[in-house]
Amino acid sequence: MGTHRLVPGDCLLFGAMLDLFAESFGDPESYSNARPTPDYRQALLARTDVVALVALAGQTVVGALVAYELPKFEQERSEFYIYDLAVAEKWRRCGIATAMIDELKTIAKANAGWVVYVQADYGDEPAVALYSKLGTREDVMHFDLPLD
Fold it and tell me: Alpha-carbon distance 135 to 41, whole Å?
């Protein structure tokens, strides 16, 4: 098992990553119904502030992580926000999520990162346990502000 950062040209891995998110989150509408065009995908994967990692068992994507670098104003540093993280059900509790987070930390350090952060939903005990093991918990509220 190893991790791989997606780069332009990783079309099959990109699709497999979205398939894993759709299945893991039970949300095929968001991850399957309006997939990015090849041009959009290529441009996205060429960006240094977008990190898409997959965990591979042979040629099979068994884990995926997407994070975004957020440059800060108060100091010359960045925070990296894990937006999506999933591991295929039969591969959970094998250290895959931790390995992907460790790879993200390496990327963050190389890019003047200060911290990696992630949010978890109340009731998602496996995620809360993983993130509690790896870092410090902060209880915050999250608000979605519609753009109407």
Answer: 32
SS3 assignment, position 72:
coil
Paired strand residues for 26: none
Measured CA to CA, the distance from residue 108 to residue 140 in angstroms comes to 23
pTM of the model: 0.86
Residue percentage of the chain with pLDDT more than 70: 89
The gap from C-alpha 12 to its chain's centroid, in whole angstroms, comes to 17
Burial of 22 (0-12, 13-18, 19+ CB in 10 A): middle
Q: What are the pLDDT digits (tens) for 63-97?
A: 999 999 999 999 999 999 999 999 999 999 899 99
Query: Where does residue 95 fall: left (phi above 0), alpha (psi -120 to 50 degrees), or beta otherwise?
Result: left
- Edge to edge, the sheet with strand 78-87 lists 2-5, 50-57, 60-71, 78-87, 113-118
pLDDT of residue 142: 67
Q: What is the pLDDT of residue 130?
A: 66
CA distance 139 to 132: 12
